[in-house]
Amino acid sequence: MNQNQQNQQFQQALNQQNQQNQNDQNKSSNRRIVDHGNSIMKWFIERNLGHDSININGIIRPEASYLIDLFPPIAYRNNNLDYDLQTKFVHLSANKAKHAIHTVKWTPEGRRLLVASYSGEFTLWNGMTFNFETIMQAHDCSIFALTYSHDDNWLLSGDQQGKIKFWQPNFNNVNIIDAHPEYSIRDIAFSPNDSKFVSCSDDRFLKIWDFNKTILEKNLKGHNWDVKCCDWHCNLGLIVSGSKDNSLKLWDPRQSNSVFTSLGFKHNVTKTKFQPNGSQRLIASVSKDKSCRIFDLRMMADSIVIRSHEAELSCVAWHPIHSSMITTGGYDGSMNHYLLDMLPSNYDSLNLSRNIPQNSLQPVHTIPYAHEKAINCLEYHPLGHLLCSAGADRSARFWCRSRPNDPSAFIEPPYTNDKPSAWYYGINNNVNAVQEPTPQMLKFKSQLLPESGENTSSSISTNMNNNPAGKINNNNNSVNDNNNGNNTNKNSNLNNKRADDNLQTDEKHSHTSFAFPGLGNSERKKEAAPVLNELNELVSGFDAAPIPGFGSRKKS
Q1: pTM of the shown model
Q2: How confident is the model at residue 458, as a pLDDT?
């Protein structure tokens, strides 16, 4: 009798465990992650073997099997900048109590993203899995400015009441000053040696402060209206500021008067940033007059004027690795990527069809519906493989490089303005379910992925020679079916398998897909299907057999 009871109890416990396992399996969903460790390690091994990064050119082709050959952005600093365009939407992060976001900063080591909201809260999001970590009340009012010191030991934050708080890396508040009483602080920047910092405010002034003594050193007067942005050169004693009076001014920190004033803008200057790498002699500024101007300190004049945006511009960001790459965000929620060394003649026919002035640089990629409302800030990850955007729609969104031969490249919400339930909005901030394939996605995928035995390269993926402006954009996508990057069997079955497993994101196995720059604001009223048909017609003269150099042979 005792033996029977024990058997029954054991069987009951076994059934309960099986039921629990089944329930867990039904509830489980793939977490989107971006793990950059594997690509960095692979690049490190290649360098130790004596392989020059220049030879990387031509490796990544529009096939899913090449996803494991993608290196970190620093490997492409001398070539292939198209690899590092952040075009793929990865994750949407939003607090349960949602508030508009004005500024975000990556922590110096790049592990977390710090989000400052209009409610005065600091929120930390994991930079790899994008899950919520912690939240704290940092200010009593809206936070408008964040900046880390160059030695990564201090964080400054400025709020709507004109107060600046000093934070240690563990978010211990050690000091507070009333920098601009009763006026909103719009921007803060450290000097090259971190001994001083500059702040700007709606009171029309820029103020230079001694960081250690927390005392005011100079009051820079010259703007006639609210000062909306400022930046301190990372190596020079030079400050730039932009104002609501439409002017851009350069300042010598030793003097109280500006040394140069640019009056090229026709509306408010909303953001200005020094070039962080390369020659470090350029300034990118955006304005509500829908233009982005690249100011050259060597000529003391605008070297490039970009007028390709159809809406007022709110923010701009330099890529931390590539000195010629910038990203702009608009008040309409759109986002554009530009390569400053690209000539207008190098763009494809789709871009040339857009009504853009001849002397203006065109975007290599446009995300027309990146946000539902104005984009307030853009911030690149220190490694350059991720981009975070945040804005008035009360969310922070992560973008990474696109994947090779991605069947859903242009039919996701940022391109079609479609909002599919919780996957897009991130109602639950824990794991965020992956997107369920829609009939449109399945139909398009079936067109790109023929039956087994046929060539898996689509007609779109073979236009590499005919699309020099936006050839290939790479994304970091986690595919759990391959852990060996050097012994991968590149056959059609593996290509189909990897293309089917297209919902997880990871730097470990990076997919590549090229983006057509013409899919921008002029096309935003069209449905996804007509746009894709137009692309198919564009590349119909090319076969599906790629050859070295990313391209394909033209039909005879």
Answers
A1: 0.72
A2: 32
